[in-house]
Amino acid sequence: MAAGRTAEGAARLLGRAARRRADGSRGPRARRAWRRLVQACGAGDLVAQDAVRAGAGLPEADVLDLLAAAPVEPADRAAYLALIGQRGQRRALDPDGSLLALAYRAARPEVRERLRGLMAAEGDVDVIRVVVTGDRRDRLAELPRDELDHLTRHFAEGRRWEELRGLARDLPLAQAAAVARLLPAHERPEGSAPVLAALAAYSAERLAATVERLPRDHLITHEIRSTARARASFSPDFSELAVCHVGRVPGRRAAAPRIHVDTLRLGTGEATHRFSGKRHYRYGDEESVLHLGEEILIRQGYSATEHALITRVVPDVHAIGAPDRFSALRRAGHGAVVIVRGRPAFIDPGARDMRRGPDLAVGSGPEREDHSAVATLPAAQLIAVAGDNGLRVLNERGEVVHELATVIPEGALPLSRDAYGGLRSALTFLSPRSLARHLFWRDGTDVRQRTEIWELPAGGAPRRVAEHHGPIRERWPLETWRGPALDDRFARRLLTSDLQYDVLAPDIPGLQRPFSPVAGSPESGRAVAMAPWGDMVAVQRHGEPVVEVHSAHLPVARALLERPMVRGGPGDVRRVDELRRAVADPAVRQPLDLLATCLAERFGADIALAPPSAFPSDPTGIALGHDHDHGRNGVG
């Protein structure tokens, strides 16, 4: 039969083959039609096999013709007999279903789908059960999700609760949660009931999405078009990294450099080029990028003026309003926010212009608007803006909720007078009720730094609870900051060892390749971005057209969450518990908590878990006001 014949064509061919003479024999055309059908069935044509199976009962001579065309290999022969509807012949050849199970496991996806449909129509689930359980229960790891769904659905319809309980204890965590939901509460035996209830209460879809976004590799590399400084932004769910860089189009050396935006899928390491456009550049300006999930924004300065332009480059390309003096892009609870001429301006998804807020009167310096320090806490819809005249905290309705009096340190130039030597600041929310501000400036040849921690009580005056002169991590090590959703600018201050973010500090935990602290050396690196929870950091090695994403713990978490629990062992209980205390992202720690509980129940209550996680229960909270040197709260 011709390849690609439709089901209707196969049915017509079968009807032609069914025509008989008065003596019951076929004429020449009918014989040709039947011969073509038999040959197609023997060649594995699923459409022909469906047509033969759907036809009326075949005479013995026709059955013998089909058997003669069957594959010689017993497992393939069992699948062939099932597909052409010869159930009796198949059961005679394969009474326990083991041959069909072997054929099923080796078959291509469309054949598997046909076999599942046939077994469902026959009410036969034991055949797939051979594939899943048999004498090797870890074979379930080889089943695609749709096949596992098919199996568990039939177990539930057949009220085969024991098989479902076994699968819930054996499968990877996301699939186990889906199976647990099929169990009625009264079918959760004493002892296992709390674990099965916890699995059933967790969204299997959310678990699967969390696992899929985690990187498989500790080090992901992405080549860009030049060694010039790249900018990067993690997506809100941390599944992607948007990389903005400047470079020439390959094969067009005479053309002016263009600005490019790529996205790097962290779960797979795959990169996709998303945008190329004209570069509007002036010396000292920093192209910036913000990944909003469905949209990506970039900000770049104009060459002839002090203005900047914000452009949406994904999913389509268009400018947001007109060029103006914009601050850096920051994530908001709904879209993005910038500061323009002392006012907040909101960029809503899909909008072609901005919503302007009230004048904040922070005196951010009209000549250097882009150096205003801005931090956001999207979950609480809060924005903090710092300038020469103070610091304001406002909500996304534009209402100022706190005003902090800040003093320019002695010896620091005002921001608007000298961008390099003048006062700079980096802000981050530690929680809705706490804010950190890091000031840094150049005093002659020396770099001066000061960090302040402010409490923001509801309905009360802000209170400075801690202060430190010198590098942040002299007082508060990097691990102390794991937990809050740190603002990107502040996070980069933690990762770098100089005033201008040029040199990555060599002692950052989790780096998969060493870096030199010497600026400009081939072994030095630039901090590009850090995921808010601190579990991933994107860096660019000096002089190399490569952006690297380093992650010490997330690939290990993915491997454990993807692995069937049947393949675990008692030592994994301790391993998972240690890992959940090393990962700061609460969306990853929660599945690890659940996995630790499941493994502890599986391997017995005599296995002692480590102490509970040392991280705060509130994912946006952190206790930095305590003075570890003096054992008291207050200004350090």
Low-confidence stretches: 364-370, 415-420, 605-636
With strands numbered from the N-terminus, the spatial order across the biggest sheet is 1-24-23-22
Supply the helix-strand structural class: alpha+beta
What is Rg?
32 Å
Number of helices: 19
Mean pLDDT: 80
Task: Name the shape in a single word.
Answer: elongated
Q: How many strand units?
A: 26
Strand content: 15-25%
Helix proportion of residues, in percent? Answer: 25-40%
- Main sheet overview: 4 strands, antiparallel
Gap from first CA to last CA:
85 Å
Structural notes for this entry:
The protein has 19 helices and 26 strands. 30% of the residues lie in helices and 23% in strands. The longest helix has 18 residues, at 586-603. The strands form 7 sheets. Strands 1-24-23-22 form a 4-stranded antiparallel sheet. A 4-stranded antiparallel sheet has the order 2-3-4-5, with no helix packed on it. It is of the alpha+beta class and 636 residues long. Strand 22 and strand 23 (537-541) form a beta hairpin. Residues 364-370, 415-420 and 605-636 have low confidence and may be disordered. Helix 11 (161-170) packs antiparallel against helix 12 (173-180), helix 12 (173-180) packs across helix 13 (193-201) and helix 12 runs antiparallel to helix 14.
